[in-house]
Specification:
By secondary structure, the chain is mainly α. Helices cover 69% and strands 0% of the residues. The protein is built from six helices and no strands. α1 packs antiparallel against α3, α3 runs antiparallel to α4 and α4 packs antiparallel against α6. The radius of gyration is 15 Å and the shape is globular. The N and C termini lie far apart (36 Å).
């Protein structure tokens, strides 16, 4: 017999997008060893990771803004950093941008 799931037991849409950020960022972290040589990029990835942990715990608007600012550094001169392309991480970075765009539109 099918189980009935109550509406208030479902995860929130916001939580879904936060989990999406974590998922897409984990894909980027899987290539972490290859990204170390790009010092500025790697530092920003480290900052992103710390702020993502904070967002996961607190779900604050400030963390969304900070993550959005850090994400912008992954697009120097408005184009995706070449390291992401070289490592075939375009989809993961696009997923991060989409999740952030949604979270930025919503009040957490």
């Amino acid at each position: 017999m099918d189980e009935i799931v109550k509406f208030d037991e479902l995860p929130s849409i916001k939580r879904g997008y936060i989990d999406g950020l974590k998922y897409y960022f984990s894909i980027i972290l899987s290539k972490q060893a290859s990204l170390i040589e790009f010092k500025d990029l790697y530092q920003n990835l480290t900052k992103f990771n710390l702020e993502l942990e904070k967002l996961n715990q607190e779900a604050s608007d400030a963390s969304v803004e900070t993550l959005n600012d850090i994400n912008a550094t992954f697009y120097p001169d408005g184009k995706m950093h070449s390291a992401f392309r070289a490592l075939n991480l375009e989809v993961a970075l696009d997923g991060i941008s989409e999740c952030l765009m949604y979270l930025k539109k919503r009040v957490i």
